[in-house]
UniProtKB/TrEMBL annotation:
<dbReference type="GO" id="GO:0004512">
    <property type="term" value="F:inositol-3-phosphate synthase activity"/>
</dbReference>
<dbReference type="GO" id="GO:0006021">
    <property type="term" value="P:inositol biosynthetic process"/>
</dbReference>
<comment type="similarity">
    <text>Belongs to the myo-inositol 1-phosphate synthase family.</text>
</comment>
<dbReference type="InterPro" id="IPR036291">
    <property type="entry name" value="NAD(P)-bd_dom_sf"/>
</dbReference>
<dbReference type="InterPro" id="IPR013021">
    <property type="entry name" value="Myo-inos-1-P_Synthase_GAPDH"/>
</dbReference>
<feature type="domain" description="Myo-inositol-1-phosphate synthase GAPDH-like">
    <location>
        <begin position="213"/>
        <end position="317"/>
    </location>
</feature>
<keyword id="KW-0413">Isomerase</keyword>
<protein>
    <submittedName>
        <fullName>Myo-inositol-1-phosphate synthase</fullName>
        <ecNumber>5.5.1.4</ecNumber>
    </submittedName>
</protein>
<dbReference type="InterPro" id="IPR002587">
    <property type="entry name" value="Myo-inos-1-P_Synthase"/>
</dbReference>
<dbReference type="GO" id="GO:0008654">
    <property type="term" value="P:phospholipid biosynthetic process"/>
</dbReference>
<dbReference type="Pfam" id="PF07994">
    <property type="entry name" value="NAD_binding_5"/>
</dbReference>
<dbReference type="Pfam" id="PF01658">
    <property type="entry name" value="Inos-1-P_synth"/>
</dbReference>
Length: 386
């Protein structure tokens, strides 16, 4: 009897890297632990827009295909960081031990960031070192592609021509041939010195400042007032938060960078900036939990004076983590499809989005759904089959 022909060995499924700047912070730790929990079927993908059926045939990388690494100046191992987050109620009890192997694997891929105090390396030397770390990660892990995502604490706006840390990492991402996502209000690719590099790179990029709480609500309420022809006289807000973000935003310069995106949403949706400011208060006892309060004074028919007040209480890391995973998948796929430049269709995720696009959340969501079609094989920019 002749031997039966052997079946071809299936090719291993492609894997995709997610390189996190601020890789040992609360958001990054929640991203890694959450991805592992969903992959193992321990928790549903609550908050992940890319798990909606509209993205089912867009060719996004599977959550199980994501490999994590990153840069950080901290040396607390991810498993320890996860235990601290579980103790603070950010992660479910028992989850750090359930996904300990995945946390350990990601922690082994974290490299020292910078520039640290006393670091004498030039900007060029820092960029080259960071880019080398990313390229080594891609080669060592056999990755199909990698997206660099900045989830580090907010930095003040730069003064002078020197590149801030966020821009050094952004330049390193481009040099390593990786798309870049800025989930923070820090400068990143917005530095004028990087504009020619971003354009010449042929890479897609997105940002900036993830829209997770107060501004998410503003992007819904602002259009409501405009569409109902109600005149907003004043819009004031207060944020109470702790953790690393609370400490970073205690710096007035960092807080100003954060508030710029919040104000832009109101200007874009209302047509003008109303009176009022946003105050950010560092309350260390709150840890990773925050409270955002808005007080809106508006005029109704015949000048009737009215007030709307909102209170948003939530865990910033848990709000941000599913969005970071969404963005990593979307931008990785955009790179596969050969897209380049600012991805304005991802404005749904940001306070201060790059590229052109609407500011109303409903319109941004419509743009995102169109983008799902653009990512499909054989589809044009609006999802129509060629």
């Amino acid at each position: 009897m002749s031997a039966e022909p052997s079946l071809p060995t299936p090719s291993p499924a492609p894997r995709y890297g997610v390189w996190l700047i601020g890789a040992r912070g609360s958001v990054a730790t929640t991203v890694v632990a959450g991805c592992a929990a969903m992959t193992a079927g321990l928790h549903p993908p609550t908050g992940m827009v890319t798990e909606d059926p509209v993205f089912a045939d867009s060719g996004l990388p599977a959550l199980s295909s994501l490999v994590f690494g990153g840069h950080d100046t901290l040396d607390c191992p991810l498993p320890k960081r996860a235990e601290a987050l579980a103790a603070g109620g950010v992660l479910p009890p028992g989850l750090p031990s359930a996904v300990a192997a995945e946390l350990d694997a990601a922690d082994r891929e974290i490299r020292p960031g910078g520039p640290a105090a006393g670091d004498t390396r030039s900007e060029e030397e820092l960029i080259a070192a960071f880019a080398s770390d990313i390229r080594d990660f891609i080669t060592r892990c056999g990755l199909e592609g990698t997206v660099v995502v900045n989830v580090a604490s907010t930095e003040p706006a730069p003064v002078g021509s020197a590149l801030p840390a966020s821009s050094l990492y952004a330049a390193a991402a481009l040099r390593a041939g990786c798309p870049y996502v800025n989930f923070t209000p820090s400068t990143g690719l917005h530095h004028p010195a990087l504009a020619p590099l971003a354009e010449a790179s042929g890479l897609p990029y997105a940002g900036r400042d993830g829209k997770t709480g107060q501004t998410l609500l503003r992007s819904v309420l602002g259009p409501m007032f405009a569409q109902r022809a109600l005149t907003v006289r004043a819009w004031s807000g207060t944020n109470l938060l702790g953790g690393g973000d609370g400490a970073a935003l205690a710096d007035p310069a960092a807080a100003a960078a954060k508030n710029a995106g919040k104000e832009r949403v109101l200007v874009d949706t209302l047509g003008a900036a109303p009176e009022g400011e946003v105050h950010i208060d560092d309350v260390p006892a709150l840890g990773d939990w925050k409270t955002a309060w808005d007080h809106i004074a508006f005029d109704g028919f015949l000048g009737s004076r009215m007030i709307l007040q909102t209170i948003w209480q939530g865990c910033d890391s848990a709000l941000a983590a599913p969005l970071v995973l969404d963005l990593a998948r979307l931008v990785a796929r955009a790179r596969e499809r050969g897209l380049s430049g600012p991805l304005g269709e991802l404005g749904f995720y940001f306070k201060d989005p790059v590229g052109d696009g609407p500011s109303s959340l409903a319109e941004q969501y419509a743009e995102l759904r169109h983008f799902a079609g653009r990512l499909r094989d054989g589809a044009d920019g609006r999802g129509a089959q060629r």
